[in-house]
Amino acid sequence: MSIDYSQKIPNNVNLAEDRTLQRALEQWQPNFIQWWDDVGPEGSTDFQVYLRTAVSVDPQGWAHFDYVKMRDYRWGIFLNPADANRTIHFGDHKGEKAWQDVPGEHRANLRRIIVTQGDTEPASVEQQRHLGLTAPSLYDLRNLFQVNVEEGRHLWAMVYLLQRFFGRDGREEAEALLERTSGDPDNPRILGAFNEKTPDWLAFFMFTYFTDRDGKFQLSALAESAFDPLSRTTKFMLTEEAHHMFVGESGVSRVIQRTAQVMNELKTDDPKRVRAAGAIDLPTIQRYLNFHYSVTIDLFGADQSSNAATFYSTGLKGRFEEGKRTDDHLLKDQTYTVLEVKDGKLVEKQVPMLNALNEVLRDDFIKDSIAGVNRWNKVLEKAGLPQRLTVPHKAFNRRIGALAGLRISPEGQPVGEAEWHARQGEWLPSDGDRAFVASLMGRVAEPGKFANWIAPPAVGINRQPIDFEYVRFA
Ligand SMILES: [Fe+2]
Ligand SMILES: [Fe+2]
Predict the structure, then answer these.
(1) Measured in angstroms, how far is the CA atom of residue 212 from the centroid of ligand 2?
(2) Which of 114, 227, 240, 442 has its CA 20 to 30 A from that of 103?
(3) 317 in helix, strand or coil?
């Protein structure tokens, strides 16, 4: 499954043989480039960046690293290879052959699923637009651009599905994906977390750790889809998503490492003294974590949702690792635990599992998130420090579902309105925290040099040395 880069739009879907589709995509392409120039990574057009490019979709196809001028980056359409015998393995169509086309009765729901996923991809590029100006090293700048170009390609992946399978509606949706803008009050992105700002690199690392991980779970659920082209394209996207989460996990880990070093040098845990030494104090890191975690778990949607049940039963969207589960994959008589508030207390209640599939996916995400936070705590442990980071309770700071708007502490205790306001600054980043973190940001552009607030990585990209020139300016 090699990718044809000789074409205007690199692809492994035989675009040359589908003239109508090729024309539609070639008409959309200049609008995409315009969008990228307007709201993509600021000032990067002439940079030569040491990027990883897919040359085929098999695992070895990822081995291609080279300098690419940002202006000349080639976004394309890459699907995992088809399995002619693939069958649907959950929901009412279980056992039937996977669909190569969109069944009429599922058209509206599938379109909605693809548009919602597609909308997140350009949104994150917009959110990260200015970060290149303050990258803490060339290594980090390169990683930012790698994430950005791949999110751009994820948009292509969804636009391919819309234009190939949804006719005129699909073409209109493809245009609308370039018209909405993250944070725009009149025409915002569809989901809340994708309208938040990513103003500094701590926010970027938290975003790629938590919010790109939401991407992993959504894409994994879509990779189970009965609609085979969606399954194949999301499987390939998942290989790219892994790198985004690596950037987040290792980024936060390096911030913690540097903070721990400063704390040990000064023999202090006083946030003021840590800040005065130019590092980010642990309570601020915890508050950023609380914010990005709570905003991200909202992305999974309402804890009870008849849409979630429909998407599952009709075979459009499965569960995370559906194939590894040993139940009947129909879930009709099963129940699941969700939280609700009764007499001012959080209590558990059993609801039909089909309706709770958003919650099931959210809980899978939570488990996965905690594992990485434990790895961050190992950095503190190794440094001999007693402090630990934690993920807040899932009812903390929610905006979606039954827990929306409740005043719950990070430990899961209901608190009154007055206490919430009094203690918010302990739990969520304040303007002062953000201003402090912003004050540390400034571009470090000398190979092998790193900003004072972050430790160097353990190894370079593609076994290059850490002082490799990952980005050449102009
Ligand atoms: Fe993505
Ligand atoms: Fe991503």
Answers:
(1) 5
(2) 240
(3) coil
Q: Amino acid identity, residue 80? A: N
- Say which ligand is closest to the CA of 242: 2
Q: Which ranges of the chain have pLDDT less than 70?
A: 1
Element (H, E) at 347: strand 345-352
Share of the chain above pLDDT 70, in %: 100
CA dist., res. 351 & res. 310, Å (int): 16
| pTM across the whole model | 0.97
Distance 171 CA to ligand 2 centre (A): 24
50 DSSP β-pair partners: 67
Encoding tokens for residue 408? Answer: 């719950």
Cα–Cα distance measured from residue 302 to residue 290, given in angstroms and rounded to the nearest whole number: 20
Q: What does the angle CA 394 – CA 312 – CA 348 come to, to the nearest 5 degrees?
A: 30
Q: Write out the H or E segment, with its range, that includes residue 145.
A: helix 138-165
3-state secondary structure of 341: strand
- What confidence score (pLDDT) does residue 54 get? 84
Residue 235 has which token pair? 């499987």
Tell me which ligand sits closest to the C-alpha of residue 144.
2
**Res 59: pLDDT:** 73
Nearest CA to 241 out of 202, 283, 213 is that of 213
Q: How far is the CA of 151 from the centre of ligand 1 (A)?
A: 4
Q: How many CA atoms lie less than 13 Å away from 42 in the CB half-sphere?
A: 10
* Phi, psi (deg, nearest 5) at residue 279: -110, 170
CA of 410 to the centre of ligand 2 (A): 27
Give the span between the Cα atoms of 290 and 430, in whole angstroms: 12
Q: How far is the CA of 29 from the centre of ligand 2 (A)?
A: 21
Which pLDDT value is given to residue 63? 74
- CB-CB contact of 290 with 328 (8 Å): no
- Nearest ligand to the C-alpha atom of residue 219: 1
Query: Are residues 43 and 36 in contact, defined by beta-carbon separation less than 8 angstroms?
Result: no
Whole-number Å distance, alpha carbon 241 to ligand 2 midpoint, is 5
Give the span between the Cα atoms of 174 and 161, in whole angstroms.
10
First-to-last alpha carbon distance for the chain, in angstroms, is: 34
CA of 345 from ligand 2 middle (Å) equals: 36
Q: Quick one: pLDDT at residue 134?
A: 98
The bridge status of strand 335-342 relative to strand 64-69 is unpaired
CA–CA separation, 41 and 284 (whole Å):
27
Ligand 1 centroid to residue 221 C-alpha, Å: 14
151 CA distance to ligand 2 middle (Å):
6
Ligand nearest to the CA of 212: 2
